[in-house]
Specification:
The structure holds 3 protein chains of 3 kinds. Chain A is built from 8 helices and 18 strands. By secondary structure, chain A is α+β, with helices and mostly antiparallel strands. In chain A, helix 1 packs across helix 4. Chain B has 2 domains: 249 residues, Zn peptidases (Aminopeptidase), CATH 3.40.630.10; 87 residues, Peptidase M42, domain 2 (Elongation Factor Tu (Ef-tu), domain 3, Beta Barrel), CATH 2.40.30. In chain B, helix 1 runs antiparallel to helix 4, helix 4 packs across helix 8 and helix 6 packs across helix 8. By secondary structure, chain C is of the alpha+beta class. In chain C, 25% of the residues lie in helices and 25% in strands. Classes of the chains: A alpha+beta, B alpha+beta, C alpha+beta. Chains in contact: A-B, A-C, B-C. The interface between B and C is large, with 64 and 56 residues.
């Protein structure tokens, strides 16, 4: 699993330009699914199974886009001005490394500030690719780029950019490979453009019209010094989401997830996230609506280039998803 | 009518926080069962109650959808710590209204508690002299830490515990009048329709999760795909410290919303009925791109649904004691019923946007 | 735990007392209730010029000591200062109530207990910056039914509409300050040891500056004085597990609070020593209230005439001076137990120099 995760996080797939990641995942899953569709927004949609008696149509979604940058202007000296793709925070951007889709690497600098404790907003930063002038600059307006950091293996914990949401994608890939049978019709969606408004999930859900939607994403933790009062910690198991700022999970789905985890002795935590949401919010209000929930991988330093997860949480997430999908379930309103 | 007032008293002392509306839905199912022909519950828990009209013939019977949301704002436990509970809000709350507010924590069993606030010396300096933000408030149930941890977990819903009060025989103060006052108005409408004949189908929908993003309205609107929709929500009654053109007196009738995101012809037709029957109302001007109600979800559903918005004047919206005048609730119900009865099979022609621009005939 | 003192009957009295309305200057209903409760158990009762009810239970043994015990009948409340015909009242506190505790709280007004609710600002028409600001009395209003407002006049008292309930291990009610003190004094009057010439004073207007106690002490001039009250226990959860609460005043679950130094008085060390000895002898948990601000009727008593030795004993209570306070039954039980044993062991030695 660690190798799979490393491959996925190191792939380059900024919001709006997820091709590389999509192709990578396609090769990993194509022998294990019945049908693959790539739609107009670039979503990778894979169907496994057909709805049987007593089965449901379940859509599982993990987003393959990561936050990144896009060049807006190349100045006379070859410095690249940029804007963010998704939620990039200035204090994680300054002095960061960037790699553009075309391979060019650079460093983020910023206009001078009055004191060492201030940071400029993104529109007063620039990317320095070592170019001498506009003409010799290998980056053009409209080029997509991502943050670049090496993958650090701390044993039980690993650190990388794009854990949000390649960790979720890894869970789905492993689930596809491990799942032997299921009474349900399963749609695995590796969605695009989640970071700019759940767009891939929205259109995928319209196409699929599932009965149940489950997102696999990361969530914050409350286990850092003086952190928010959030009762989620690394290593305590996958988090079953009750509520975030864009969705209230269907109580029936939360119950199903908790009961299944308890039955199969899989550790879990309950998540109430005050800021942030996932693909599940889009699936819930698709057409006439769907039951929806989310299984989250606890993650520290989300939306920085150094996101940290616990491998046990990821392995347990796979166990939980497999158990949920293997067995029939009935929901009454 | 007395039944609608009693229904209102009942449902305003119940929980039914966004996402967890079942207790209120069950009361409505029981109340509306004798008044309608069939009922079902949507994937998001909204209650659809259909009363068929008399229109027959080859054309598909026309349908009007009424929408009033039955969810209420509330709180949710985020952490159990040292025998107290930290919480966040479900829907919009002004944290200043919460200290010393009695609540019910829906853990393994319902547990009474009160919201409490630290005194200034226990707050970081940056907050001195300012109102206490919600993350610093906590719920005190008086239970020992061990007992509490066994009964409550993160994600448990918390509802406000205050009982409704009649301030005089016409005025009620209660929590969740937004939007259960409108649900009572829909009840009033259904009670009247039970004795009347109408051509169109009426589907009354008690929507869910309006307070957290109009979720029930999006999905119910899509599922019903009605010809017309009327959303009933709450408007702003005059209150101390507030000034604005949209504030009206309580007790002088409902507000009928007038603005670009609603249908002007539909507004005019409804206004005609109100004038004919001498039902007092206010014209509520809504110049903006959204109304902040279920109508924002319904107007752009599928191919677009002509929608009207009725608002019952309410004071202290989203506080533990909101206030409305019973007459406004009852007049709203009456106007709804009378408008529905006035609908004939040709009504939709009145809403046509004019002849097609191109010279080709349809 | 076996509750020998806080029996259902005693709890019932506290419930009735907290549900009775009596603000500073408007204590009559509380006084009448206490009168009915105690009249058959004592030798004389009179009401003085200010409204204090002075109850005398004579000693039946010698040598005896003249002891005055004060418990205040008044609760913090509010008063109507202005009336707007659309159905709004402007109010001010009678005693200390933080305006930020009042939004959306239900109240009753005047002789007819007309219902009203405190205003709240509709969130949709309140700016984000306004939501950061504290509330004050100029902005607050009480909403009343239009048809009822003609019965209300400036000068009418406003009381919280809070029920008496159990919340976990606690009792929750309004006015625990100081109806629990009154209940404790009633208990003492019914069970006073023979060598105490006991003057139980149910004082008025403590919340406005210990006014009743001052004149009552002057009338009685006791050898020894006590105040039975409630005192804040400030024990919120802290945001960070590394922080500690060093400023709690008292803590619930640690028994009755014995005053040491407060804003109005430095308590007598001999008395404190005796109390601690008695408590330890009988295994009664107790705590010393943190030195600091605040005060009780005892400060008024001790400065009367040429000075009187006086002591406060209070029940630790959460959320004083708000619509709803919370007190542990255990703490109340231990307080009565302490009062019982202490008064049995009081002797004239204590007031000798």
């Amino acid at each position: 699993m660690k190798e799979l995760l490393q491959t996925l996080v190191q792939a380059i797939g900024p919001t709006g330009h997820e091709n590389t990641v999509r192709e990578l995942i396609k090769t990993l899953i194509e022998d294990h699914v019945d049908e693959i569709i790539v739609d107009a927004l670039g979503n990778l949609i894979a169907r496994k199974g057909k709805k049987q008696a007593g089965g449901l149509r379940i859509m599982l979604s993990a987003h393959i886009d990561e936050i990144g940058v896009i060049a807006t202007h190349i100045d006379e000296k070859g410095f690249v001005r940029f804007t963010s793709l998704g939620g990039v925070r200035p204090y994680t951007a300054y002095a960061g490394h960037v790699r553009f889709i075309n391979g060019t690497q650079g460093v983020i600098g910023m206009e001078p500030v009055d004191s060492a404790t201030t940071v400029q907003p993104l529109n007063r930063m620039f990317i320095d690719v070592g170019a001498e002038s506009k003409d010799t600059c290998p980056v053009s307006v409209g080029d997509f780029g991502v943050f670049e950091r090496p993958f650090i293996d701390l044993g039980k914990r690993v650190v990388s950019k794009a854990m949000d949401d390649r960790a979720g994608a890894a869970v789905l890939v492993d689930t596809i490979r491990q799942l032997k049978q299921s009474p349900h019709e399963l749609w695995f969606v590796f969605s695009t453009q989640e970071e700019v408004g759940l767009r891939g999930a929205r259109t995928s859900a319209y196409r699929i019209e599932p009965d149940v939607g489950i997102a696999l994403d990361v969530t914050l933790t409350g286990d850092l010094p003086k952190a928010d009062t959030m009762d989620v910690a690394l290593g305590k198991g996958p988090a079953i989401k009750v509520k975030d700022s864009g969705m209230i999970s269907s109580p029936a789905i939360v119950g199903w997830m908790c009961d299944t985890a308890s039955e199969f002795d899989i550790p879990y935590q309950l998540e109430v996230l005050v800021g942030g949401t996932t693909d599940a919010a889009a699936i819930q209000i698709n057409k006439a609506g769907a039951l929806a929930g989310c299984i989250s991988i606890p993650c520290r330093y989300v939306h920085s280039p150094s996101e940290m997860v616990d491998m046990d949480d990821i392995e347990n997430a796979v166990k939980l998803v497999v158990k949920l999908l293997e067995n029939p379930v009935e929901f009454t309103n | 009518m007395e039944e609608s007032r009693q229904l209102l008293m009942t449902i305003t002392s119940m929980a039914g926080v966004s996402g967890y509306e079942k207790p209120v839905r069950e009361v409505l199912e029981e109340k509306w069962q004798p008044l309608v022909d069939e009922m079902h519950v949507s994937n998001l828990g909204s209650l659809h109650a259909l009363k068929r009209g008399t229109q027959n013939g080859e054309n598909k019977r026309k349908r009007i959808m009424l929408a009033a949301h039955m969810d209420a704002i509330g709180l949710m436990v985020t952490k159990v710590v040292d025998g107290y509970l930290r919480f966040t809000s479900v829907g919009g709350f002004d944290a200043r209204l919460l200290p010393y507010q009695p609540v019910i924590v829906h853990g393994k069993e319902p547990i009474k508690g009160i919201v409490a606030t630290p005194v200034e010396r226990h707050l970081p300096e940056k907050l001195h002299g300012k109102s206490v933000p919600m993350e610093y408030l906590y719920i005190d149930t008086g239970l020992s830490p061990e007992k509490l941890a066994g009964l409550v977990k993160p994600g448990d819903i918390v509802s406000l515990a205050n009982e409704p009060i009649e301030l005089d025989e016409d005025t009620i103060a209660a929590h969740t009048l937004d939007d259960r006052g409108a649900v009572a108005a829909v009840n009033e409408c259904l009670q009247i329709l039970a004795q009347r004949v109408h051509a169109w189908d009426v589907v009354a929908v008690a929507t869910t999760q309006e307070e957290v993003g109009l979720k029930g309205a999006f999905t119910s609107g899509f599922a019903e795909n009605p010809d017309l929709a009327i959303v009933i929500d709450m408007g702003f009654a005059k209150e101390p410290g507030a000034s604005g053109y949209y504030l009206v007196e309580m007790g002088e009738g409902p507000c009928l919303a007038y603005g670009p995101v609603l249908n002007y012809q539909l507004y005019a037709e409804i206004e005609k009925v109100a004038k004919r029957l001498e039902i007092p109302y206010h014209k509520e001007i809504n110049p903006g791109g959204r109304t902040g109600t279920d109508s924002d979800a319904i107007t752009l559903t599928r191919e677009g649904i002509p929608t009207a918005l009725f608002s019952i004047p309410l004071r202290y919206m989203h506080s533990p004691y909101e206030i409305i005048h019973y007459d406004d609730m009852e007049r709203t119900g009456r106007l709804l019923a009378e408008f529905i009865c006035s609908l004939d099979i040709d009504f939709m022609e009145k809403l046509s946007q004019g002849p097609a621009a191109s010279s080709e005939e349809k | 735990m076996n509750y020998r003192y806080t029996t259902p009957e005693v709890i019932g009295l506290l419930e009735t007392l907290t549900l009775t309305n009596g603000g500073s200057g408007d204590e009559k209903a509380v006084r009448d209730l206490l009168y009915q409760e105690i009249k058959d158990h004592v030798d004389s009762i009179r009401v003085d010029q200010l409204g204090n009810m002075i109850v005398h239970k004579a000693a039946t043994a010698t040598p005896s000591m003249k002891v005055m015990v004060a418990a205040h009948m008044d609760e913090v409340s509010l008063m109507v200062v202005d009336k707007k015909d659309e159905g709004f009242l402007e109010v001010r506190p009678v005693g200390g109530i933080d305006a930020n505790a009042l939004s959306a709280k239900p109240v009753v007004i005047g002789k007819d207990s007309i219902p009203g609710v405190f205003s709240a600002r509709t969130i949709h028409i309140t700016s984000a910056s306004e939501r950061k600001s504290l509330l004050d009395y100029e902005k607050l209003r009480v909403s009343v039914g239009k048809k009822k407002i003609e019965k209300i006049n400036p000068g009418d008292y406003v009381y919280f509409m809070t029920p008496f309930e159990r919340l976990g291990d606690f009792f929750a009610a309004k006015a625990i300050d100081d109806r629990v003190g009154c209940a404790n004094l009633i208990w003492l009057l019914k069970n006073a040891p023979g060598h105490i010439d006991l003057y139980g004073v149910f004082t008025v207007q403590e919340e406005l500056g210990l006014r009743g106690a001052k004149v009552a002490a002057y009338q009685i001039m006791p050898d020894l004085g006590f105040a039975f009250d409630a005192t804040p226990a400030i024990e919120p959860p802290l945001m960070d597990s590394n922080e500690h609460n060093y400023a709690y005043n008292t803590q619930t679950g640690r028994g009755p609070a014995i005053y040491t130094v407060d804003r109005g008085q430095v308590h007598n060390e001999k008395v404190i020593f005796l109390i601690r000895k008695v408590a330890e002898k009988h295994d009664i948990p107790y705590q010393l209230r943190q030195p600091g601000g605040g005060g009780t009727d005892s400060s008024a008593i001790h400065m009367t005439g040429s000075g009187i030795i006086s002591q406060s004993i209070s029940v630790p209570t959460r959320y004083l001076h708000s619509p709803i306070s919370m007190m542990r039954q255990d703490d109340w039980e231990h307080t009565l137990h302490l009062i019982d044993t202490l008064f049995s062991e009081l002797s004239p030695e204590i007031i000798k120099e």
